[in-house]
């Protein structure tokens, strides 16, 4: 779905440099404090220059350590835009002669060696990556207003790829209703009563053929890991075969590209459609990694992902059911919100059957809770816990 001139060749992975442990509670607190400023044009006040050449800058009343151009002076006001929070907060620095991107971290503890926690600074918008460019370009108007009175605004440049993504995001904003989820074109299964394996296969096919991951599937095909016939079912391939040239500036196309960018940035997929004919369903799946956790690490020592899912269904007799699941390794926690007390009681009576089915599939039911819509919930966002 992305224009051809936005697709860059895959290059070798550069070994990671020694950096601050993201498991550091200080780093996590720093990321959480900055997260609400993502995509916003800000002003930073340079408070101090450290021995390694980095600076302490106050941004939105939050002290941050970052790299700035060598000409930066203590007490100066620096225009900044937060373009990414993970894996490390990254700012675009408005400087004369071009766009510069600088990583940031919390100020070091007293006496700490700055060389033990190096920060990187990159020139050019393209080097910040698509996800970061999307956040930056969403704030282009605000950034231009903040820089408009200064000379820096006349010299700040955005790469052709960045400009193209900015145009796509602007076109997406012209659409009436924002596209926040994939809309299924066909029911997941042909009829009610399908088993779990059949539903799982249907969901896999619905997501895989939605076009959301088309570019990655093309890359897999180029490497011989996917058949060309598998791409034929995706909307981009179908349009190409029919001779249709989709403009990325068409609001509908631009919205879909924006959804692709958001999916990549947030590691979250939302789908809505028919589970079977006449049975609507909404599904959300998000992958989260807690870098601070001490348990649940894979063989390489990296923290395992927690999968958070939310499933919404409305049945003729049971009414509305909202299921939230958290899967960590082989343990799952399930919380139901039922539309009536009778449905909640029915779900409780079948808890043992659910636990048995999960155990047979190799998954342990670590938590189970059912509430009716009228009962207060312990947590409006139980999957965040």
From TrEMBL:
Assigned keywords, A-Z: Cell projection, Cilium, Flagellum
Gene3D superfamilies reported in the protein's UniProt record: 3.30.750.140
Stretches assigned to the Flagellar hook-length control protein-like C-terminal domain: 301-378
Region described as Disordered: 1-20
Name listed for the protein in its UniProt record: Flagellar hook-length control protein FliK
């Amino acid at each position: 779905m992305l224009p051809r001139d936005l697709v860059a060749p895959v290059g070798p992975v550069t070994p990671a440099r020694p950096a601050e442990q993201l498991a550091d509670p200080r780093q996590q607190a720093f990321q959480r404090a900055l997260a609400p400023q993502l995509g916003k044009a800000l002003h930073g006040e340079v408070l101090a220059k450290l021995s390694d050449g980095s600076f302490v800058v106050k941004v939105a009343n939050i002290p941050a350590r970052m790299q700035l151009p060598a000409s930066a002076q203590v007490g100066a006001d620096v225009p900044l835009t937060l373009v990414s929070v993970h894996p490390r907060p990254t700012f675009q620095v408005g400087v004369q002669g071009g766009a510069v991107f600088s990583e940031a971290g919390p100020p070091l503890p007293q006496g700490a060696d700055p060389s033990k926690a190096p920060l990187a600074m990159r020139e050019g918008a393209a080097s910040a990556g698509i996800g970061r460019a999307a956040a930056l370009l969403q704030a282009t108007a605000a950034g231009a207003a903040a820089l408009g009175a200064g000379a820096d605004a006349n010299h700040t440049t955005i790469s052709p790829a960045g400009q193209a993504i900015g145009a796509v995001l602007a076109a997406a904003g012209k659409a009436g209703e924002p596209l926040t989820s994939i809309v299924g074109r066909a029911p997941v299964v042909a009829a009610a009563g399908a088993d779990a394996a059949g539903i799982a296969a249907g969901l896999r096919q619905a997501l895989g053929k939605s076009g959301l991951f088309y570019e990655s599937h093309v890359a897999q095909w180029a490497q011989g890991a996917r058949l060309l016939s598998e791409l034929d079912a995706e909307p981009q391939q179908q349009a190409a075969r029919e001779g249709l040239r989709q403009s990325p500036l068409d609001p509908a196309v631009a919205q879909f590209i924006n959804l692709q960018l958001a999916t990549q940035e947030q590691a979250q997929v939302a789908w809505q459609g028919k589970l079977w004919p006449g049975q609507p369903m909404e599904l959300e799946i998000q992958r989260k990694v807690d870098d601070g956790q001490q348990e649940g690490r894979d063989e390489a020592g990296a923290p395992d992902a927690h999968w958070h899912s939310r499933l919404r269904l409305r049945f003729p007799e049971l009414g509305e059911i909202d299921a939230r699941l958290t899967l960590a390794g082989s343990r799952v926690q399930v919380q139901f919100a039922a539309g009536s007390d009778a449905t909640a009681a029915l779900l409780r009576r079948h808890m043992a059957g659910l636990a048995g089915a999960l155990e047979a599939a190799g998954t342990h039911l670590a938590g189970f809770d059912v509430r009716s819509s009228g009962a207060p919930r312990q947590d409006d966002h139980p999957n965040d816990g």
